[in-house]
């Protein structure tokens, strides 16, 4: 019976089927909201599904000089890592696999899709992909520092209350703290980290104004320039799922709590919160800003979000 439950969790919720459907719906909502903000009708919310299945039906062309195995394996590896992360993120107190991994594991797993993009782009042998790879590396260097420091502030804050002052990286304990003391974003010391993480999400996802690696107008989608058919469809799916996973992780870290105890209701509440977070961290920025240059991205993240994250960590250490 336990084995059957595990399989259902992996395949249905919060695993494969949820990630695919939830990610594509979230992407469709993002496009619809952006269109409305720009006074356009926009595509239907289900448009990402149409795009995904259309790409699946297209021919897969592998460049003559490409490293074929790495070229085809890269998008699949990225997809597997994102689904694995989703399994570890609690939905309020529902966390079937959270005891198997903590924030450190989640950070490593969230890095794999970016590495997969780099590997896939380098395997294609395209000069445009080479430019995109270097940009993706700069993006990773840019957002990892404020993200890690923000997570350290949360770990210390929860550890002071539940673990005798020792940092805790357990997502289950972070949720338990919020169930007892209210959402973390209401704590003065965590508000700067809350803002920093909100700014990290668009660069981690690779959306405007931080989509420097895949800038279509400048470098023809960079690492994806040689991709077509099913591999390209999986990379596009990875982008949608990454949006879902990052906003879901944000909700768990800052907006979680005891929940209702009814999984369907809690899942619905979580998804509504995910849409709200997506609007403020991704859609709104798309609507009001243009793409930043590579050096502007690095400078931005190593100043404002990093400063906010360190401020939060300092405030936590002073017991605020």
TrEMBL record:
Pfam families named among the record's database cross-references: NADHdh
Subcellular location, record wording: Membrane
Keyword Transmembrane: yes
InterPro entries, alphabetized: ComplexI_Subunit1 (IPR052561), NADH_UbQ_OxRdtase_su1/FPO (IPR001694), NADH_UbQ_OxRdtase_su1_CS (IPR018086)
GO molecular function, one term: lyase activity
Gene Ontology annotations for the cellular component aspect, listed alphabetically: plasma membrane
Domain of life: Bacteria
Protein keywords: Lyase, Membrane, Transmembrane, Transmembrane helix
Transmembrane segment boundaries: 6-29, 70-91, 103-125, 137-155, 243-262, 268-288, 300-319
Membrane topology: Multi-pass membrane protein
Protein known as: Formate hydrogenlyase subunit 4
Organism: Caloramator proteoclasticus DSM 10124
Lineage of source species: Bacteria, Bacillati, Bacillota, Clostridia, Eubacteriales
């Amino acid at each position: 019976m336990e084995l059957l439950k595990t399989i259902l969790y992996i395949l249905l919720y919060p695993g494969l089927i949820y990630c695919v459907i939830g990610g594509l719906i979230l992407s469709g909502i993002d496009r619809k909201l952006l269109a409305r903000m720009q006074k356009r009708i926009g595509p239907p919310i289900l448009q990402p599904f149409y795009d995904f299945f259309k790409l699946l039906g297209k021919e897969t062309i592998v460049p003559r000089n490409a490293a074929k195995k790495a070229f085809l394996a890269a998008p699949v590896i990225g997809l597997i890592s994102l689904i694995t992360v989703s399994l570890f993120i609690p939905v309020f107190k529902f966390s079937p696999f959270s005891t198997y991994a903590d924030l450190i594991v989640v950070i490593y797993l969230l890095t794999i899709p970016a590495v997969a993009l780099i590997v896939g782009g380098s395997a294609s042998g395209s000069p445009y992909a080479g430019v995109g790879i270097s940009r993706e590396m700069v993006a990773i260097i840019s957002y990892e520092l404020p993200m890690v420091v923000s997570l350290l502030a949360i770990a210390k804050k929860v550890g002071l209350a539940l673990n005798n002052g020792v940092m805790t990286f357990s997502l289950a304990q972070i949720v338990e703290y919020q169930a007892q003391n209210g959402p973390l974003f209401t704590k003065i010391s965590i508000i700067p980290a809350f803002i920093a993480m909100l700014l990290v999400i668009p660069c981690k996802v690779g959306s405007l104004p931080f989509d420097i690696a895949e800038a279509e107008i400048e470098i023809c989608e960079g690492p994806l320039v040689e991709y077509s058919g099913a591999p390209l469809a999986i990379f596009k799916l990875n982008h949608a799922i990454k949006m879902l996973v990052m906003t879901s992780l944000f909700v768990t870290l800052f907006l979680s709590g005891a929940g209702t105890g009814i999984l369907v209701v809690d899942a619905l509440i979580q998804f509504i919160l995910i849409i709200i977070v997506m609007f403020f961290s991704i859609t709104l920025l798309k609507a009001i800003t243009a793409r930043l240059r590579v050096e502007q991205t690095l400078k931005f993240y190593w100043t404002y979000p990093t400063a906010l994250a360190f401020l939060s960590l300092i405030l936590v250490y002073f017991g605020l």
